[in-house]
Amino acid sequence: MLPNSLLQRMVKWCPWLLRDEPKQPVKVLVTGAAGQIGYAIVAMIARGQMLGPDQPVVLHMLDLPRMADALNGVRMELVDAALPLLRGRVLAAGVVATSDEAEAFKGVNFAVLIGGWPRKEGMERKDLIAKNVAIYRGQASALQQHAAPNCKVLVVANPANTNALVLKEFAPAIPAKNITCLTRLDHNRALGQISEKLGVHVGDVKNAVVWGNHSSTQFPDASHATVRNEQGEKPVRELVSDKTWLREEFVSVVQQRGAAVIKARKQSSSLSAASSACDHMRDWVLGTPKGTWVSMGVYSDGSYGVPKGIFYSFPVTCDKGEWSIVQGLQVDDFARSKMELSAKELEEEKAIADEFVSIERD
Amino acid sequence: MAKEPMRVLVTGAAGQIGYALVPMIARGIMLGADQPVILHMLDIPPAAESLNGVKMELVDAAFPLLKGVVATTDVVEACTGVNVAVMVGGFPRKEGMERKDVMSKNVSIYKAQASALEAHAAPNCKVLVVANPANTNALILKEFAPSIPEKNITCLTRLDHNRALGQISERLSVQVSDVKNVIIWGNHSSTQYPDVNHATVKTSSGEKPVRELVADDEWLNGEFIKTVQQRGAAIIKARKLSSALSAASSACDHIRDWVLGTPEGTFVSMGVYSDGSYGVPAGLIYSFPVTCSGGEWKIVQGLPIDELSRKKMDDTAQELSEEKTLAYSCLE
C-alpha cells in the first residue's frame, strides 16, 4: 500500500501509473443510523450505490445512546452480509457503530445527516424546528472539529433546509458549498409523476426542477422537463395534453407525496428517501450526465431572485465534485409566485430557528 | 441493445425483508446492473395499503432499471410470467419463537403458492424460498408444484454462509472478500453446520486454509459454529426485529450467483433438492456447497468429510426429516 502523501503526488503528476491501483477507502457517516432511513441507506452505501461500485467505504454510524443495541444490530447485519466494499485501510473493519459524536465524525469525507426528530402523521414542519435546532448546533461543532477537510454534507432530517442552515451557521469553517439538503426525493417524485402521466419510463424523463423548501411549499416545475422518445427530446409541457395538470395536480401530488406515503405505510418514506440521498451524493461526487440537471438544496447566492442566506433548492449540474446552479431558465409569473412563496416560508423558518438559537445562547 | 426485462416476484413484499429487498432488485444487485426488471409484489389483503405505499416509493425513487411494478394481493396476477420468485411471505419469527412453531401456519401458505407458481410462472422460473422454515417450505412447494423442475426450487442458506464468512473475517481481521469456501450444511436453523474445513483466506502469500490461520480448533468447532447457528436470534435480540437487510442482501447474492455464475474456484451454499450426495437422504431440501454456471447449480463433489462433520451433517438431516414428517402431518 502506498503512503497517502505519495499517492496524492502521483494522482497529480502521473495519474497513469495508478491506473490499476484500487481506490482508497473513504469514510461515510450516517447519523440516525438505527432508524428506518438509516437502515435502508447503509445497505445501499455498502453496495456502492452512493459512490460507485469500485469505491470501498468505511461506514460510520451514529445514533443516540438508547439506540445502542439496535445500532449494534445493524452493525452485526452489515458484517453478516459479507459486503466486499465495506472495508477499512488498516484493520479491515468497515463499520464503526457509536453514540459518540467525535468518534462518529472523525475523518469522515461524506456525512449524511438523517438523525433528528422524525415527522409523524399530522405533525407540522414548524413543530420540528424547535427540536432540531439544538441537535444541529451540536452536529455542526462535531463536523467542524473532526471531519476530513472538504467533507461533503447532505442534510436529510426535516426540516432539511433549516437544519442545513443551522449547521452552516454553527460550522463557519466548513465552506457553505459543502453543505446541502435533500430535495432529490421530490425531484425523483416529480420525474415519477411525469412518467406515470405520459406512460413512459422514468429513465426517459429528465430536467424537472424542484424549487425551494423540502416541504409542502416546494415548487415542482415541469416546464423545462423533457422526455426522450423516438423523435428525440420533447418538452413535457408539449406532450401533456391537459395544461392544468402541470400547474395543479402535478404540483400538489408531488408536494404532498410524503404525507401520502405515510398514510399508506403508516411510516415515513425510507426506501425512496435513502435511494434519493444516494442519487444526490453520487451525482455531486461523480457528476451529472451531460444535458441533465438535478435538484439540490444549496446555499442561495441570490440566483433567480431568491434571497441569499437560506438553503433553497435549485436546478444544478455537478462536475469534478462541485455543484453549480443552472442559470438562465425562463421563470414565468406562475413559477415566480410559487418560488417566492417557498422562499418566504424558508425565511420564516429561519426566523423561528434564530429565536431558538438565541434562547440557547442565553 | 438493451436486455429484455425480467419479471421478479417478491411475496411478503410489504414486510421488512421485502422492503429491504425491492430497492436492491430495482438497482440491479440481484440480476446485474444492465438487467431491467419488472417487480411483482404480493402480500395479503390486510397489507394492501402498505403494499401500495411500497409501490409508491418505488415510483418515487425513479429507478432507471425498474421497468414496471405490479402490487397485488392476487396470487395469480403476482405469479404471471415471473422468471424469478423470491418467497419471503410467511409467518415471521418473533423473539422466543422456535422455527417449528411457525410450521403449520406456513405449510398451507406454501401449498397454495405452489399451485399458482406452477400454473402461471414463466417456464424455468427460478425459485428461492426465504420464509422460515425455509427448507421445509421449499419442500412443500416442490411437492405441490410437480411440473416445476426440482432443481429450480431452492432455499436460502446464503445468509448463514455470509455470516460464517463475516465471523472468520472479524476473527482474522481480514477483508471479508478475501475469505471463501465455507460451507453451510443442512437446515437453515440452529442445527445447520457451518464448516470451515475447506475454507480459505487470500493472503499476500497465496490462499491459506482458515483452520491453519485461525489456529484455534476449539473456537472453530465450538463458539464459531454456535455464533453462526444462533446469529438470527442475536439479531432479533439487538434489533427487536428479524434480520432484514442481511437476509435481503444474501437473497440477492443467492440469485445473482445462480443466474450469473460463481467465480472460478469459489463455491457458495444453497439449500437444494438432495440427490443423496454426501450420504444426505434424498428427498429433502438440504444446504450443500455448490458452484453455478449457465444458470444451473451443481453440488461440489468429493470434499473429504471428517467424523465431527459427519455427525453434524447427520444431525441436521435428522431434523429435516422430522420437519418433513411434521409438515405432512399438518396437511392431513
UniProtKB/TrEMBL annotation, chain A:
NAD(+) binds at G32, A33, A34, G35, Q36, I37, G38, D63, N132, V156, A157, N158. This is Malate dehydrogenase. The active site is at H214 (proton acceptor). It catalyses: (S)-malate + NAD(+) = oxaloacetate + NADH + H(+). Substrate binds at R119, R125, N158, R189. One of its GO terms (biological process) is tricarboxylic acid cycle. It comes from Eragrostis curvula. It comes from the Eukaryota. Gene3D superfamilies: Lactate dehydrogenase/glycoside hydrolase, family 4, C-terminal, NAD(P)-binding Rossmann-like Domain. Belongs to the LDH/MDH superfamily. MDH type 2 family. One of its GO terms (molecular function) is L-malate dehydrogenase (NAD+) activity. Residues 183-356 form the Lactate/malate dehydrogenase C-terminal domain. Residues 26-179 form the Lactate/malate dehydrogenase N-terminal domain. Keywords: NAD, Oxidoreductase, Tricarboxylic acid cycle. Its EC number is 1.1.1.37.
TrEMBL record, chain B:
Residues 157-325 form the Lactate/malate dehydrogenase C-terminal domain. NAD(+) binds at G12, A13, A14, G15, Q16, I17, G18, D43, N106, V130, A131, N132. Substrate binds at R93, R99, N132, R163. Residues 6-153 form the Lactate/malate dehydrogenase N-terminal domain. It is an enzyme of class 1 (oxidoreductase). One of its GO terms (molecular function) is L-malate dehydrogenase (NAD+) activity. GO terms for biological process: malate metabolic process; tricarboxylic acid cycle. The keyword Transferase does not apply. Its EC number is 1.1.1.37. Belongs to the LDH/MDH superfamily. MDH type 2 family. NCBIfam families: MalateDH-SF1, MDH_euk_cyt, PRK05442.1. This is Malate dehydrogenase.
